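This protein record is not my work; I was only asked to verify it. Would you go through it and say whether the fold makes sense for this chain? Here is the record exactly as it was handed to me.
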Amino acid sequence: MDLLNTLDLLQNKIIEDKPFKNNKPEYHFDKLKMFFGQPYIVNKITIIQPSIGDILNFGEDNFYKALSPFLYNSTSIRLFLWENKIDWNKVSDIEVFSYLMPAIAIPYKDILDLIFDGINFSDFQLLQKKTEDDSKKEFLLYSKSQDILLTENEYTEIAEYLRELLNIHPKVEKVKGKSAKQWTIQEEKMKLKENKNNDSSNLLSLISTCTNYSGFKYKLEELRDVSIYQFMDAVKRIQKYENSIAALRGCYSGFVDSSKLPSESLNFMGDI
């Protein structure tokens, strides 16, 4: 299966999946800085937060496809891996990057240049680090021409930062047993076939909802200058506000027992 065609089929499916936190170590990013759109630096790589206008100019599908080497994990592309005789259960996220980036780096260079301040990702090679325990694999990404060496933790930090920005957290599904793996792959083929002609836009539904919501502060044209994290924060805040108001009304009407509700569910100004 051609890699770019596979990414086309995966695009809507991955974005529309409910966010699942994976079992990677959590990175505690400064969300206030993210909200104000400040750049984030890992090693020698600077990540520039895109605006809604940037995504609109490049095209939503192109934008997410360009970042797929960071947004996807082995579960996301398990059909592609399986058809290339690779067991997705044994593949790390940094290896996924090495499989996807060669097909992405050149066609989507403009998008990558914007997000990563001109870093050339076609130049990175996956290296395996020697460890005392030969059964444990540790990888590095190295660009000789740019003199950049990324550890696996640094790569994961970049990936998790982008996933947090875009509110996309790929699910992790590990399967044991040959029969179970074959059933999982067959199910994946059916899902991708169902999504083959699905050209829906994830951002359109969110933007349409927000711009038609009475409490949303931005007009349509003003949204072009809003950073993606700030917009996603607004989406989640609207949801939290509506859930809190519904809970409060239920309490006051007597239909909901307030003593059984967690206090944070009533506070729409709390963390999201």
